[in-house]
Known about the structure:
Layout (H helix, E strand, L loop, with lengths): L2 H19 L10 H12 L6 E4 L6 H11 L3 E5 L5 H11 L3 E5 L6 H13 L1 E6 L2 E6 L3 E6 L7 H4 L3 E4 L5 H14 L4 H13 L6 H10 L6 H12 L2
Parallel strand pairs: 1-6, 1-7, 2-3, 3-6
Antiparallel strand pairs: 4-5
This protein binds adenosine-5'-triphosphate (ATP) and magnesium ion (MG).
Amino acid sequence: MNNSLKQRLTGLWKGALRVNSTCRLDEIVNHDDIKQIFAKALHSKRPVHLLLVGSPGSAKTMFLTEIMRHYNDSYFTVGSNTTKAGLVNQLFERRPKFLLVDELEKMSLADQTSLLHLMETGLISETKINKTRQMELTSWVFATANSCEKIIKPLLSRFVILEMPEYTFEEFSEIALIRLTRENVDESIARVIAEKVWNELGSKDIRDVIKVGRLSTNIQEVPFVVKMLSRRANK
Length: 235
Ligand SMILES: Nc1ncnc2c1ncn2[C@@H]1O[C@H](COP(=O)(O)OP(=O)(O)OP(=O)(O)O)[C@@H](O)[C@H]1O
Ligand SMILES: [Mg+2]
């Protein structure tokens, strides 16, 4: 291999490492493909809008909160909480580079239209008592949803839609172990909890693991707590 080719390859490799190491989504276990896409979007020169779609407890919100934690020029909002005036106002005030919208499907039609306008034109505008204000804003929109049903089609088409893959039992156990040991639950108890939540409760939601972990004082109590939760789940 000649020297210039060697240098170019080394440069490319260093570039790839830099992109991955500055993505800073390490708290999220697995989902490596989705992390890679986020790393690319976070570093792209022009806006790329990402929508995470998946079942409850699959770490969608976590992606947004991790970005919020590490990027000061981000703004986090929940779809159900935004009113048109509220969202547009906040955008005027904060001018976020990364706009993080959790539960996009719960956003009102009016807010979805404002968002569409922003993504399409790079402009936000507001009319109040015959006065219109307008501002240019270049934002990357990262959003989450449980399903796409209530999201208007033109808005959907502006997103790169990423389906969160369902966890396998091995992935579920790994995440459960990490989360529970962080809460000082013994590793052997954590393994039993993960197994029972998956098999007896039929749940793939890490939140159920945490509930059982917090309610069980010792390993003997785990089956009882899981039984109580499954009574409700079977109704
Ligand atoms: N891959 C993961 N790595 C670390 N923690 C995880 C992972 N997946 C789920 N969790 C944990 O599970 C819980 C739920 O995650 P999160 O709130 O991000 O789910 P969600 O996909 O937004 O769910 P919902 O659709 O109900 O809003 C959190 O406590 C989170 O820490
Ligand atoms: Mg969520």
